[in-house]
Amino acid sequence: MATVQVILIFAVLIGSVLLMMTKKLPAILALPMIGILVAFIAGVPFMNAGEDGQSICSFVISAGSARLAGTIIVTIFGAIFAKLIEKQGIAENIIHKAAELAGDKPLAMAFALTIATIIIFIGMSGAGPVIMVCTIAVPLLLAAGVAPVVSASLILLGLTVGLMINVSQYQMYIDTLGMTQDQVRSMSVVLAVIGAIVTAAYILLNVGRKPVRSSWAMPAERTEQKQVNPVALFMPLLPFILVFFLKIDALTSLIIAILVTVLITTPKKTIPVLSACFIEGIKDVAAVIGLMIGIGILLNGVTANATKALIEPIIANVIPSSPVMYVLFFAILSPLALYRGPLNMAGMGSGLAAIMLSAGTMNPFAVGMALRCNTFVQCASDPTNTQNVICADFAHVDVNDVLKSTLPYTMVMCLIGLIYSAIFIF
Known about the structure:
It is a single chain. The chain is mainly α. The chain has one domain. It is built from 20 helices and no strands. The chain has helices at about 1-20, 25-40, 55-65, 70-85, 90-100, 105-125, 125-145, 150-165, 170-175, 180-205, 240-245, 250-265, 270-285, 285-305, 305-320, 325-330, 350-360, 365-380, 385-395, 400-425. The longest helix is centred in the middle third of the chain and has 26 residues, at about 180-205. It is globular. About 55% of the residues are buried.
């Protein structure tokens, strides 16, 4: 009976991944469905709790829906902060300042706008900011003679490095893996440095030094650039500074950053600006919140006592038990973070991480580092990402060409991060 249950569980997991990869079933529906089905197959009672006090209704669905409550709240305030940066013209000014410093030299322009993108996404996330950055930065890169595929790739690489230290991303690893804030903070900084170095190599290898005229046509009508207090240009960095140097938690740092930013930019319109950003910010992350509810249900489904009893013996034999195998396992399989695959932390990866932890062969820090390294591949190279489609569309290139351009570099980022983790964390 146990063998049949295990086969059915893995059939559900593999089938769901294939459905998500082929876009037949969205992750927002697939993840809770997996959690419920896996628990049901494992023998978790539907309503009446068993001897361990767990049931599908109470533990998997009800408790699972609230499991990532902390992550959801941090995500909401991160979206409010991002909306504030966007509405106050801070991100737009950062890009224009960077372009002015670079002049018309393609190499300087590539470095300047990539650095500007990194700074912006340290404080922002979501499709809205990506559209705003692409609207300004991609035409500037193309006009300087940077190839279209490279232009789109640079925005994605800068975005990925910035998100590595975006504090709104921290809580996910704390809630799902039980990592400490110190661990998440150190992990994020190390990976951001690795990402920045490899991105610099990408620029040097793919961008020429001589200016080349491009046929890209700038919009005939351009809205007037909003002027902001020069101090406000540093506001995207404020949450990170508060977390890294003052050891303040992610949520408090975001709230402080929101208040400081609105007081610096529009002190006389604090209430209406905050109200608008609060409403619009929540709208921007509504789908993300739904995804996190599904992840919570998935986590409780795969970590229910009945499920763990079936899966743990198998997983324990598969999970790498040495630093070398750890690096090889996650580096070779890093493309599985693409197409909503099993190493995607915003999908099946969270459930896989929970199973690996329950097997007891790796510590939470090593598991978190492995999946965070794979985020390089997922965030910058995955053609199913909204940001990849947006960047490719603005540069008028095929999103799969962006995948081909970035994947070798994001896999190198992943490999270097895993080597660091194997030496200092595993």
